[in-house]
Every structure is written in C-alpha cells, then in structure tokens.
Design brief:
The chain has helices at 9-29, 64-85, 98-109, and strands at 42-43, 55-56. The chain is mainly α and 135 residues long. The chain starts with 8 loop residues before the first helix and ends in a 26-residue tail after the last helix. 5% of the residues are buried. Residues 106-135 are annotated as: Disordered.
Length: 135
Amino acid sequence: MAENYVFPDDLRDTQTRLHQAWADYARHCATLPWSAVPAEGWKTLEQQFSGYHREVPATEGYTPEQQAEVERLRVLALELSRIVMRHPFWRTVPMEDKADARQALKSVTRLSGATSSGEDRDEDRGVEGPQTAAA
C-alpha cells in the first residue's frame, strides 16, 4: 500500500464490529444442522481406491430460534457493511486508491485470531480441524 491512511474512529469501530458480526455468524453456522429444512440423510458409494464413503444423517432442519439467529446476524453484518461502505471518509480517497484503503482498513481492524487472508480459522469458528497423529 502506497499510503498510510488515517481512518476516523467511527469507521474503524464499525469495521471492527463488522469483523465480529461475521465471526459470530460463522461460529453460529458451525453449530447448525447441514440443512436449513428437514431432509433425509444419505450415504455415498464407496470410493474405488480408498474405500472411503460419506454418511450424512437425516436432519430436522433449523429450529425457529436458529433461523432467527441466522437472520439477525446476516442483517447485522449487512447493515454494518452498508455503514462502512457509505462512510464519508471514502469521498476523500481518490478512486484509484480506494481498494488499497479498503484493504488497509480491514487489516488494521482485523480481530485477533483471523488469518492474513481475512478468513477466520476453523478453531475460531468452533470447528475441529483434522487431528494430527502423535509422534
């Protein structure tokens, strides 16, 4: 980035809240059934060389409370996105620098535990990753 940007406090605070909203959304989604609506389970055929097959259990779908929380978190994240993108600060940034400035804002407000790509790590979402064998 060619320039160091001085972001207004309210813009930084809103972007931080946006990171938190998406992290909360990802954490909540990791606890949900695989389908939002009731669905039958299935089992894949055994793979030719590995013998692996996947089994997906039937699901009742989301409860009304789970669906309401998904919607609440989505609405919150979208509203915070709108506030960030329409902030008056962006009118002061030349068009050719806006993408860099936007990335700089994301970088300076990123929550601890997020990766450099901006994605939350599995463990931050409460998702267990592959288990490593003890040496």
